[in-house]
Design a protein that fits this description.
membrane; Elongation Factor Tu (Ef-tu), domain 3; coiled coil; alpha+beta; conserved putative lor/sdh protein from methanococcus maripaludis s2 fold; 6-stranded antiparallel β-barrel; transport; 405 residues
């Protein structure tokens, strides 16, 4: 019975409190993570120099060009929009797009009927005035005879003074009529000449040698030249093309007339066309708030490879270096002292010597986007470090998080 009481008492006693173990697992995980991060930070920093890896490139010989690039459009240097100076129906067009024409060739014809009738009417009026002039001159000759007779009779007192005065006045009237007819003849002649010119304008001739590159009117179309000169077609000289390159405001001071230029086209990226700058237009174009200046470049096109409205990638050569010592641009660091950059040709490179980086001052020459010419301070074949400077990385690295324990 006592044994049962003891069992009952032990069953009624409160259970022992167990100590939680999750906190210790969390603390162990934080300690391991901190130790791993510290090890990585140590090995990746300057302390782990033995484990550091450098990206290098050799200093090599090659050719380098320093240039300003721009986009351009190819146009014919010389072209003429051929129009009509008279109104009327376009009766005939003798050429098509792509035809080669010579100066003076007949290109098109306007219906000449209206202008032919004007010329005929002017000519008839002119003939009538000339006939009147001949009649008036004959009458003037008769009036001179009558005036002479009247003067003689008056001198012998056989005639009256009134008759003599009337004869003299008739002569003057006849002379005035002749002068008026001569003026009318000049006026009619001028009208005839104008109508003859308009009749000639009904035939449209080529003003220059070239190629028909476009047409703006079709046969049967009525053209009205009273307000504007209608364009019938365009003739262009395709033997000489002109590149209109748009150069940015920041680069335009470097571009000079006569500068050597080469360009490529979208369809012929491997073909270089060389030319020279002929003109820099002073008035810019503003495109999306960007100021662009047009630079004109003439280029021969005897092979007819260049066509109107082609796009061109233009390179203005600022300098060239043949057989120069070149290194990647990423390997060169400009020299700065006191917050100011030194002369443009002074810089430093890191050279890998016996597996260790060595900072070396150099003098640079021309540069492109990817390469820089080294004039002094480096030899061919030496390997320069192109990866970022660990010291600079360390200076910019965020501080290590504090240890928890």
């Amino acid at each position: 019975m006592m044994l049962q009481k003891l069992d009952t008492g032990s069953a009624l006693a409160p259970p022992k409190a167990r100590r939680p173990r999750r906190f210790w697992w969390l603390a162990a995980f934080v300690l391991l993570a901190g130790a791993g991060g510290g090890t990585y930070y140590y090995l990746s920093g300057p302390q782990g120099g033995a484990a550091a890896q450098y990206a290098t490139a050799p200093a090599v010989r090659g050719d380098l060009e320093q240039s300003v690039t721009a986009l351009g459009t190819i146009k014919p240097k010389t072209y003429v929009d051929v129009g009509t100076q008279v109104s009327g129906q376009l009766r005939k067009v003798m050429v098509e797009i792509g035809d080669t024409v010579k100066k003076g060739d007949l290109l098109a014809q306007i219906d000449p009927t209206v202008y032919q009738t004007r010329v005929i009417g002017d000519q008839a009026q002119l003939d009538n005035l000339k006939a009147q002039l001949a009649q008036q001159r004959a009458q003037l000759d008769l009036d001179h005879l009558r005036n002479t007779r009247a003067s003689r009779l008056l001198s012998t007192q056989a005639g009256s003074q009134d008759a003599a005065d009337a004869a003299a006045a008739t002569v003057k009237i006849g002379e005035a009529k002749i002068a008026a007819l001569e003026a009318q003849i000049k006026q009619t002649q001028a009208t005839l000449d104008g109508d003859l010119a308009n009749l000639g304008y009904t035939k449209i001739f080529a003003p220059i040698d070239g190629v028909v590159v476009s047409t703006s009117a079709t046969e049967g179309q009525t053209l009205n030249a009273n307000q504007t000169a209608p364009i019938v077609l365009r003739i262009a000289d395709l033997d000489t093309m002109q590149v209109w390159a748009q150069v940015a405001e920041a680069d335009i001071p470097k571009v000079k007339v006569g500068m050597l230029v080469y360009f490529t086209t979208l369809g012929m990226p491997d073909r270089r066309f060389q030319a020279n700058v002929v003109q820099v237009l002073p008035t810019p174009d503003t495109v999306n708030d960007v100021v662009l200046y047009n630079v004109l470049i003439d280029v021969p096109n005897t092979e007819r490879l260049l066509m109107t409205s082609m796009s061109a990638q233009v390179f203005f050569l600022l300098g060239q270096a043949k057989d120069a010592l070149l290194v990647p641009a990423a390997a060169v660091r400009p020299v700065a002292r006191g917050g100011r950059r030194e002369a443009r040709n002074e810089a430093t490179v890191r050279v890998l010597v016996d597996g260790k980086p060595q900072v070396r001052p150099v003098k640079t020459g021309l540069s492109s986007r990817s390469q820089i010419q080294i004039v002094e301070g480096l030899k061919e074949g030496e390997r320069v470090i192109t990866s970022p400077d660990p010291a600079a990385q360390q200076a910019n690295r965020p501080p290590m998080p504090p240890r928890l324990f």
